[in-house]
Amino acid sequence: MSSNEVFVTPIIKEILRKYRVIWAIGHASALMGWDLEVCMPPAGVKERSAASAELGVLSQKLLLDPEFVSLVEKAAEAELANDYERGLVRVLKREIDRMRKIPPEVLHELIKTTGEAQVVWREAKQRSDFGMFRPYLEKIVELERRIAEYLGYEEHPYDALLDFYEEGVRVKDLDPVFQQLEPELRKIIEKVLSEGRFPQWHPLEDLPYRKEDLKELNLATLELLGYPLGERARLDESTHPFTQSIGVNDVRITTRYEGKDFRRSYLAVIHEFGHALYELQIDERLAMTPLATGASLGIHESQSRFWENIIGRSRAFVTAVYPLIEKHLPFVSGYGPDEVFLYFNVVRPSLIRVEADEVTYNMHIILRYRLEKALIEGSMDVSDLPSAWNDLMDKLLGVRPRNDAEGVLQDIHWSMGSIGYFPTYTLGTLAAAQIAGAAEKELGSLEELVREKGFGRLREWLREKIHRWGATYPPKELLRRVVGSEYSAEPFIGYIRGKYLA
Ligand code: MG
């Protein structure tokens, strides 16, 4: 091991020795978070939340310990041995800076407000009553605006919030991307709908399945994709599918079983597999360090969407897994691979983001991006949100919510104080197409690779180019290394045109 070490400079080794406790708290917190969603009896929530909050505070205290901070500052000035060491210092400095810039009382107020807001949001959504949620959202927006000021920014206050989720990405990067995407998508959606080659609805959406059968299919598909089930990875159930990495050799995904419309559970599994594979293929030498995670939310999402959309919804994939689907879900056998392909690729402008197809999905993000930016720059009031949401929905997708539950209240993110998060979904979608292009240049046609079930070659390519680095490089730099450019809309537009209109 020692001859193979990546961290060699003495001060870095000292930082990592001290960091070990912070890592252990993170490890325990990750397991507690997974358990909360998957196993915990509901009545445990109060004690679990209290314990998590205490551990969070303890971890913060250790990170801001003057001795630790001064080590990191010294290391930032020192001559370091390699990119891993420089990445390590960059990541720690970012975390320390952020913690130091936001006054503890403001952070505390945000935690308290969002804790209450999530409870109120749930009820407001159920009753479809934005008025109930409004005072909480007003408070959250006000706090986020203050936080943006504390964090600082050069051009736009939204930049400060965005940077937390996607290091180095700014409004000036996003505006041109979204401005290009919107009219292109509008044209494509109109054309796909008028041509009618892809249906707006498929009968398989209504067919029920037996949960045990679909579970078997999900497991068989994960095995085919090379997910190390039972060894370093798990598949469980939760209300909302997610991936949790506990460590580089313990990564867990979940899906849900709703009883009908099997593609929802099935494609969620493939999506989460993409997230999990990223974590599982991080260089083991980065284990227990702050680099043992993805480069950013956008890059992470590029991996899930690559597997879910570009691979999972492709004709070649559906053809390859059709025998498995037919075996485990006998009711599909009358349809054939062509119909399952159409079922996986229904295009239907709809009100709910999480149910959107890959053609209309990004319109939902454009809408949220515009509204968030307006709220944070102060050009829109929270009270104007519901009508602004409905008008924009109408303009972008030609559908209009009948109530707030179908509109402005649908996402949990704002109640959690996550403003600046949504754009990473689109960045991930765009990067997935960019990365697919780069992979094709080196591996040849992905369609052929998938037809031959050459998933191992694809996994290896992703490991070599992206996964093994963990958080060593910031997202823009990593992307530049892999595809030779920054986030760009063109490869995605080309991919969508090629699939849906060619
Ligand atoms: Mg995801």
3D architecture notes:
The chain has 502 residues and is mainly alpha-helical. The protein contains 20 helices and 3 strands. The protein has helices spanning 10-38, 45-63, 66-77, 83-101, 104-127, 130-151, 157-165, 171-195, 211-225, 263-280, 297-311, 315-328, 336-344, 361-377, 385-397, 423-443, 446-451, 455-465, 475-483, 490-500; strands at residues 233-237, 243-247, 250-255. A 3-stranded mixed sheet has the order 1-3-2, with helices on both faces. The chain starts with 9 loop residues before the first helix and ends with a helix. The structure holds magnesium ion (MG). Residues 271, 275, 301, 304 line the site of magnesium ion. Magnesium ion is lined by residues 271, 275, 301, 304.
